[in-house]
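Re: beginner question about structure tokens

> Can someone show what the tokenized structure looks like for a real chain? I only ever see the sequence side.

Sure, here's an example I had lying around. Input first:
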Amino acid sequence: MPQLNPNPWFFIMLLSWLTFSLMIQPKLLSFTHTNSPTNKTPTTTKTSPWSWPWT
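And the corresponding structure tokens:
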């Protein structure tokens, strides 16, 4: 079965990963975020029990 022959597909996969790792990834990581993340203080919500009309 020729689709199980890893010879051409392994090279294509390796070449694509190297392209991504060496060329595309540094370009994507160089972008700066427009909204830098900030720490928010957690807010607690007040929960009240539900009053069921049939009890």
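Each token stands for a local structural state, so reading them left to right follows the chain. The longest helix spans residues 6-29.
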